[in-house]
């Protein structure tokens, strides 16, 4: 028994520290790998008046984080679809076309509402609304706060997840080009603001855009529930035009005038500086072209809607004027006609015969 007790003491003293060290190394390696997927990378300590703050900049490892949140977004998409939208659509008894649009608007209402709340919180806490000059001052904005970078990564993950969702949701072929257009439009603008270090301006523009889109999809859901309810569409039509005006004004003010007055005007991709005349013109051209295209589609759809509405109203006002014929009582004699003479059913004429005098 003494030998076994010595072996057990030896294992407790020698093997336990080795096993503990092995587990620590293993957990450390897995933790680093997990943090690569879960948390934003490229953190930098930036000195401030209150001390040091941890900020972030972008890099190739962000693609891994975006990939992870693409899968998270797909799962959340499926949860919203199964436990909320499917239960509501069964009660409405929609057609296939309306059912597809209902699912699209339902998903986007949830996304736009959460994005508007999140974006508004970030803009207010970072002080971008109270100090509009911060949108272009101290450019390039290479170092981002945690919440700003995490917001952009989640936005990119959502719009990238929308591409495989076209297959999972079995979207009709007629709807795929339209959805690809606005998915690519969002990806270009969000990635452009993130990579060109215009994250502050991009946050404010997304807040305006998402607010108008949330109103539109809410109006469409209310229309599917009650086809006579079109008041929210009128509110969205007014908000849409105002939003285009604000986005264009803010983009021209920040890019055209604000960045033009910044002292550091040079093309230096290593430092994240893209403040040159050519880059500013390209950015303004992209924003203006996108807003003009959206406005053209809006006007075209409104004209088509008004044309259909007017045709329906004119059709209702028309009263069918059918010619009224005077009611005539037609007395037909029994029998049938033969050579203009009415014959009886037995073939004899119905006229009275004259009797010959004897």
Describe the secondary structure blueprint for this structure.
Blueprint: H1 2-38, E1 43-48, E2 51-56, H2 62-92, H3 96-126, H4 146-168, H5 176-195, H6 199-225, H7 231-258, E3 267-268, E4 273-274, H8 277-317, E5 336-338, E6 341-343
Antiparallel strand pairs: 1-2, 3-4, 5-6
Helix pairs in contact: 2-3, 2-4, 3-4, 3-6, 4-5, 5-6, 6-7, 7-8
What order do the SSEs take from the amino end to the carboxyl end, as H and E? HEEHHHHHHEEHEE
Largest sheet: 2 strands, antiparallel
Assembly state: single chain
Secondary-structure-derived class? mainly alpha
| Number of DSSP-assigned strands | 6
Low-confidence stretches: 6-15, 325-333, 353-358
Strand content: 5-15%
Query: Main sheet: which strands, in order across?
Result: 1-2
Any idea what the shape is? globular
Q: Share of helix among residues?
A: 55-70%
| Mean model confidence by pLDDT | 82
User: What is the number of domains?
Assistant: 1
The end-to-end span amounts to: 165 Å
Count of discrete alpha- or pi-helical segments spanning 4 or more residues: 8
Rg value: 37 Å
How would you characterize this protein structure?
The protein is mainly α and 358 residues long. The chain is 66% helix and 6% strand. Helix 2 crosses helix 4 and helix 3 runs antiparallel to helix 4. The longest helix has 41 residues. It is globular and about 75 Å long.
């Amino acid at each position: 028994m003494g030998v076994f007790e010595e072996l057990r003491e030896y294992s407790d003293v020698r093997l336990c520290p080795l096993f503990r060290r092995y587990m620590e190394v293993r957990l450390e390696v897995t933790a680093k790998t997990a943090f690569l997927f879960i948390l934003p990378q490229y953190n930098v300590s930036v000195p401030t008046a209150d001390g040091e703050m941890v900020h972030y900049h972008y890099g190739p490892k962000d693609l891994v984080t975006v990939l992870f949140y693409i899968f998270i977004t797909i799962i959340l998409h499926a949860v919203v679809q199964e436990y909320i939208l499917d239960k509501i659509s069964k009660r409405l008894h929609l057609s296939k076309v309306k059912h597809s649009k209902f699912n699209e608007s339902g998903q986007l209402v949830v996304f736009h509402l959460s994005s508007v709340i999140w974006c508004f919180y970030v803009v207010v806490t970072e002080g971008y609304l109270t100090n509009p000059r911060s949108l272009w001052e101290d450019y390039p904005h290479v170092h981002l706060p945690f919440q700003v970078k995490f917001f952009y990564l989640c936005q990119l993950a959502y719009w990238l997840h929308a591409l495989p969702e076209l297959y999972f949701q079995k979207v009709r072929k007629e709807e795929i080009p339209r959805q690809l257009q606005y998915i690519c439009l969002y990806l270009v603008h969000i990635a452009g603001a993130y990579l060109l270090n215009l994250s502050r301006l991009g946050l404010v523009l997304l807040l305006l855009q998402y607010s108008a889109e949330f109103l539109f999809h809410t109006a469409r859901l209310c229309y599917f529930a009650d086809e006579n309810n079109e008041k929210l569409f009128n509110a969205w039509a007014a908000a849409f035009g105002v939003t285009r005006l604000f986005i264009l004004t803010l983009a021209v003010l920040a890019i055209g005038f604000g960045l033009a007055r910044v002292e550091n005007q040079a093309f230096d991709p290593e430092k994240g500086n893209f403040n040159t005349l050519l880059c500013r013109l390209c950015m303004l051209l992209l924003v203006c072209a996108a807003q003009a295209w959206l406005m053209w589609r809006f006007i075209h759809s409104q004209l088509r809607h008004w044309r259909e509405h007017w045709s329906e109203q004119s059709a209702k006002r028309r009263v069918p004027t059918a010619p009224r014929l005077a009611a005539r009582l037609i007395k037909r004699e029994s029998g049938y006609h033969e050579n203009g003479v009415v014959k009886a059913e037995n073939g004899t004429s119905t006229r009275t015969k004259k009797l010959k005098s004897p």
